[in-house]
Design a protein that fits this description.
The chain is of the alpha+beta class. It folds into two domains: about 200 residues, Beta-lactamase (3-Layer(aba) Sandwich); about 170 residues, no CATH class. The protein has eleven helices and 15 strands. The strands form four sheets. The chain has a five-stranded antiparallel beta sheet, with helices on both faces. Strands 11-5-4-3-12 form a five-stranded mixed beta sheet. Helix 1 runs antiparallel to helix 11, helix 3 packs parallel to helix 7 and helix 6 packs antiparallel against helix 7. It is globular. It starts with 18 loop residues before the first helix and ends with a helix.
Length: about 425
């Protein structure tokens, strides 16, 4: 894949607006000035990438909490640094022993990704030693809410994830538990929490009819037990890095993970993708290194450098401007084939987190990533107009006290106005 290189773009605000720009401003400004928007912080930026003209700008250089719009930067990083297939693990064979260290690949025994490349590879060897300490990361990201430890969207980060680092449980003629190692650790009662904070003891209401994912509390002993259970053989854990030249085993197509991350807004995949990207820069897995590399080497011309602390946007420490979101979206638009790029984003009224919002007339006109935290909702991506134009936008809303559905309804009316008039 062609590497994405930031060549920058100039945001031109025309002194004499075109008639279509004037129509957009005439229709959008009153909505943003309405009572609905007056008591929270809103930023909106729209760019015509062909003309490199600013179509609309409102607080576009101000910093916002982006929530899962942060995944756009994770996607950009992954597209630049990762190959077409995921680097699943690094290894070396020495004296009949397979020495293995993780790259952060989230697909190993993942409940939905269903890739068996690494599993089949490991089954070929009788003696396996895993090095799990090649990562310089806390299990949770900076600023994550401590009380979220029990919820699926807050799975722990690790160098060698197993089963997506979650327990999966559902009711079907008895409790179905994966990994099965925890069959006796799931208590079938209706309880206020899903897992004890400091141990792998779980609670599941057997009257539920959905599938529940509960984060595991990880340590090296647990990972070893899970690996032994999956491989049906003993494995060892070593504190020593792999000696000699390491080979890389590649697994599933990278786009498969990008699509799931973007469509489902999967925090675990986003975090692990940043860890994976760091594996291409250093033997030590560290997401600070990869974020600094991206900002210092690939995005040197950002007008408002972000405060970027995690891969998922789960942290409220993240701060991005609408202009900085559009900047990266524009770079991807320039360097990634249109069909492939749009396939990575939810489509309005059709797929992912946009399935129930921004429907087309009849075809989708919005391809974008949403981002939501309590009292915050953002969306950034691509908007197709009826005149055949492709626009790039970022619309950020922070600190509202009304239902997010009300904010989305007004956003939808603005998007439709731009679609129909520009």
């Amino acid at each position: 894949m062609e590497k994405i290189v930031s060549i920058g773009f100039i945001l031109i605000v025309l002194l004499g607006c075109t008639s279509s720009q004037k129509i957009v401003q005439k229709n959008v400004c009153p909505v943003l000035d309405s009572e609905l928007f007056e008591n929270h912080f809103t930023g909106f930026f729209v760019l015509d990438p062909e003309k490199r003209d600013t179509i609309f700008s409102h607080n576009s250089a101000k910093y916002f909490t982006p929530a899962s719009n942060t995944k756009i930067y994770t996607l950009f990083t992954s597209l630049h640094l990762l190959p077409d297939s995921i680097p699943s693990l690094r290894y070396n064979v020495y004296n009949d022993t397979l020495f293995v260290e993780g790259t952060g690949d989230p697909s190993f025994l993942h409940p939905y990704l269903k890739d068996s490349t690494a599993l089949n590879f490991l089954k070929e060897y009788d003696i396996i030693s895993f090095h799990l300490n090649n990562i310089q990361e806390e299990r949770f990201g900076p600023g994550w809410a401590w009380g979220d430890y029990q919820w699926y969207y807050s799975a722990e980060r690790s160098s060698f994830p197993v089963y997506g680092n979650v327990l999966t449980v559902y009711e079907k003629e008895g409790l179905q538990v994966s990994p099965a190692l925890f069959k006796d650790k799931v208590i079938p009662i209706d309880y206020a929490i899903q897992r004890e904070e400091n141990e792998n003891l779980f609670y599941f209401n057997p009257s539920r009819r959905d599938t529940v994912e509960i984060p595991l509390k990880l340590d090296s002993t647990l990972v070893r037990n899970l690996l032994e259970d999956a491989l049906k053989k003993k494995v060892s854990i070593t504190q020593n890095p792999i000696k000699g030249k390491k080979s890389v085993l590649y697994s599933m197509p990278s786009d498969s993970i990008y699509v799931k991350m973007m469509m489902d807004s999967d925090n675990f995949l986003a975090e692990q993708l940043l860890i994976l990207a760091s594996s291409t820069l250093s033997d030590t897995l560290n997401t600070d290194k990869v974020r600094n590399f991206v900002l210092d080497s690939l995005l040197t011309d950002l007008r408002q450098p972000p405060r970027w602390v995690d891969g998922s946007g789960l942290s409220r420490y993240n701060l991005f401007t609408p202009q900085s979101m559009v900047h990266v979206l524009h770079l991807m638009y320039q360097h990634i084939p249109r069909q492939r790029l749009f396939s990575l984003f939810p489509a309005g009224g059709v797929s992912g987190t946009l399935e129930n919002w921004y429907p087309g007339d009849p075809e989708p006109y919005i391809y974008a990533k949403t981002g939501s935290l309590g009292n915050n909702h953002c969306i950034s991506g691509y908007l197709l107009t009826k005149s055949g134009k492709t626009l790039i936008f970022s619309f950020m809303n922070n600190h509202f006290r009304i239902p997010s559905s009300e904010v989305k309804k007004r956003m939808q009316s603005i998007f439709e106005t731009i679609r129909d008039t520009y």
